[in-house]
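Dear colleague,

Thank you for sharing your sequence with our group. We've completed the structure prediction you requested, and as agreed, I am returning the results in plain text so they can be pasted directly into your records. Please verify that the sequence below matches your submission; if there's any discrepancy, let me know and we will rerun it promptly.
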Amino acid sequence: MAKNSPLSGYTFVEILVAALIMGVTLSLGAAGFREFSRRQLLVSAARSLQGDLRLAQGYALSGKKPAGCSVLDGYRVTISSSSYSLKAVCAKTAKSINKDNLPIVDGITASTTRDTFTFKALGQGTDMDEGSSSVITLTQTATGKTQTIIVYASGEIK
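Please find the predicted structure tokens below.
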């Protein structure tokens, strides 16, 4: 006598449904991760620029002079659409402090209301007129999202 035993396992339709669910979940996760990565790239670029601005501000506040500088006037910040530089200004002559032409980040551009300003030495603020500021906007070209850094005439950075 032959024994009837039911076959166990999954049907083709069940496997297709499971694969479809996994595919949709993975594609949504990949899109979310790509957006998160882009957002983090923009935030990272803004933090890096803000950190370098604070470095220049700190050097100016402390009166730190590079080698060969007898009289420190301050630290000049120059910003273009794709890079920026920080230089010590000694007796009206700019000296490099190894912060020349720092790239912002590929895919991110900078625009500013004032492309050059100087943090004056020993806590005298900046060379901007009282009440004015330099607004630096970093824009991610792929998404159009922005991050803003503001440097006030007093030297405050936000």
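Summary note from our side: The chain has one helix and seven strands.

Kind regards,
the structure core
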